[in-house]
Amino acid sequence: MLPVVQIKGVTHAYLGDHEASLALEDLDLTVEQGEFVSVVGPSGCGKTTLLSIISGLLRPTTGEVAVNGVPVTGPSPRVGYMLQQDYLFPWRSIMDNAVLGLELTGSLDTAGRAKTLQLLADMGLAGKENAYPSQLSGGMRQRVALVRTLAADPELLLLDEPFSALDYQIKLQLEDLVSETLRSRGTTAVLVTHDLSEAIAVSSRVILLQRNPGKIRRIFNVPEEIRLAPPLYARDQPGFGLLFHQIWQEMELAGRES
Ligand SMILES: Nc1ncnc2c1ncn2[C@@H]1O[C@H](COP(=O)(O)OP(=O)(O)OP(=O)(O)O)[C@@H](O)[C@H]1O
After folding, report:
1. For a disulfide at 38, which of 11, 50, 64, 203, Cβ 3.0-4.6 Å?
2. What is the ipTM for the molecules in this complex?
3. Which of 10, 11, 14, when mutated, tests ligand 1's pocket best, judged by the most ligand atoms within 8 Å of its CB?
4. What stretch or stretches form a coiled coil here (predicted)?
5. Model confidence pLDDT, tens digit, residues 86-116
6. Is domain 5-78+155-257 in CATH 3.40.190.10, yes or no?
7. Residues 131-143: b if buried by 16+ CB within 10 A, e if exposed
């Protein structure tokens, strides 16, 4: 089967006033159907740049990116992108916010509404359809943002620090809910996070980048017993501490060498 994400020889340089800064250099990566991978690394190693390139918001200086074999040439509803901020419109109800993606692509119909209502219920938001964002907690608003993204049935979901602004307890609950929802739908996802334990708890592979220039330093496979456990319990699995320690040490080295 064709990988969902194929990145070949991607280099990206941001042009400054006097010189270009190399954010990513000659990066190759594939992500298979149904995989949930995380990208971690020291600040400035190119994590957000990489997601922006996969999403089509940014064109790489050189190299190629394809989603399900189709070259990425710009933003497309095939790729959902969820950020730290929920970007809900305060004047629209929760339901109207949740169907926005479908509305914008002209594909909002009765089936789309029914699917969105089901997703809201799956996310524990039944009964909140007519509320407004200001009446919801931060964790609830992030769940609405996720419903809005998933309702459009993206072939790939990109998550840039979606839980980082939340309280620790809410964050753990949401990690569980999101990873269960994605697993049951077979959605392929790439998560950028600063939280190493979150990366290990939700993914099948952790991609460690190094900076100056941004490159893949090492890819860690998450052992099955951690991968198959719900994120809340993944942290209690015997191999969790060891893997955390290994990635942490490698990340320290990467930070020191750059
Ligand atoms: N718009 C831009 N113009 C110029 N340089 C940029 C721009 N955006 C990012 N950079 C530079 O590119 C490099 C990678 O940035 P990027 O934001 O992708 O890293 P990151 O790993 O996501 O960082 P952080 O963990 O701090 O969010 C950094 O050196 C950054 O300063």
Report:
1. 203
2. 0.97
3. 14
4. none
5. 889 999 999 999 999 898 888 889 999 999 9
6. no
7. ebbeebeebbbbb
